[in-house]
Design brief:
By secondary structure, the protein is of the alpha+beta class. The protein is built from ten helices and eight strands. It has one domain. 45% of the residues lie in helices and 14% in strands. 24% of the residues are buried.
């Protein structure tokens, strides 16, 4: 905490801003939106001929709109997946934030790209990220102790809670955040389709084709890479399975963990020595998102 407000007014303002964030942040924002997506009702749309003021029911535009509405189940499932991604990314950012030392606003702004992906990928493997190790009493914290320390300020905070599924939840959601293909397609308006992904096969000596992969059904997108200076070109075909009901359960569990973190940090800010928190219990396993990605590269670093 900033002790001399007159000497460090800007730092004090940042401190107060961070405190306000924890007091106003709603960890259940993503779940509140996600649970309503599939129950949304379409608005009534009428097309009126401007010249005659009569309703037009058989116009091709109305047919295209109706076709779009028929795809709403896919669109809403994609939106719920995006909300799960944003929720889980927020959890990762909270783990790297610290009241009084590393404001959430700084972490959310500075930890972008590889600065976030590299440590998140380590978390997905159950490893303490490089450069973020913590030693207490001369001993480095284990992964579970590290997560507890980053979340609640003490590696012993959950000493009486023996539900290891909490740490599996953190690893699973880190794995989700570490692959950005589907969410980047969502954020940047890339063309997507729904259905089976690529099926790859190879012919043996007798001309019989053998499948190289198990086809994944879900969201399909294309990533395109060019580097004209190095004469490089590559194209990737990605597919990510969608499961809205499972996503909503994971969003709620992640929101509950974030709520516990926020409640503990609010207590720290207010100088309270103890606080009651609720943690997700017996988190269902097997919720890792199924994906596939094929990358085709052409060209070389040496110009022809």
């Amino acid at each position: 905490m900033i002790q001399d407000e007159a000497a460090f007014p800007v730092l004090h303002m940042i401190d107060r801003m961070d405190h306000r964030f924890y007091r106003e942040f709603d960890p259940f924002y993503f779940w509140t939106v996600a649970e309503c997506v599939h129950s949304a009702k379409h608005a009534s749309i009428n097309m009126v001929d401007k010249g005659t003021s009569e309703l037009v029911n058989d116009h091709s535009l109305m047919q295209r709109i109706e076709r779009s509405r028929e795809s709403y189940s896919n669109y809403s499932s994609y939106l719920v997946r995006a909300l799960r991604y944003f929720c889980s990314e927020t959890l990762m950012l909270l783990l790297f934030s610290e009241v009084g030392n590393n404001p959430f606003a700084r972490v959310a702004s500075v930890m972008r790209g590889d600065k976030l992906l590299s440590p998140v990928r380590a978390i997905s493997k159950g490893e303490v990220p490089s450069g973020y190790a913590v030693r207490i009493g001369g001993r480095p914290l284990t992964f579970e102790e590290w997560v507890t320390f980053r979340a609640f300020g003490s590696p012993d905070y959950l000493a009486n809670d023996h539900d290891a599924s909490l740490f599996e939840l953190v690893k699973d959601e880190a794995a989700l955040v570490s692959e950005r293909g589907a969410i980047n397609a969502f954020k940047h308006g890339k063309a997507v389709s729904f259905g089976d992904g690529l099926a790859m096969s190879v012919a043996d000596d007798e001309g019989e084709y053998q499948a190289l992969n198990e086809v994944v059904e879900g969201l399909n997108w294309v990533d395109w890479f060019e580097d004209q200076k190095k004469n490089l070109f590559s194209i990737s075909f990605g597919t990510e399975a969608l499961g809205a009901e499972q996503d909503k359960k994971r969003i709620f569990a992640t929101g509950l963990l974030m709520d516990a973190i926020v409640q503990a940090r609010r207590a720290e800010i207010d100088g309270e020595k103890s606080v009651t928190i609720q943690l997700p219990a017996e988190v269902p396993q097997g919720s890792t998102v199924k994906r596939q990605k094929f990358k085709i590269s052409l060209g070389s670093k040496d110009k022809q």
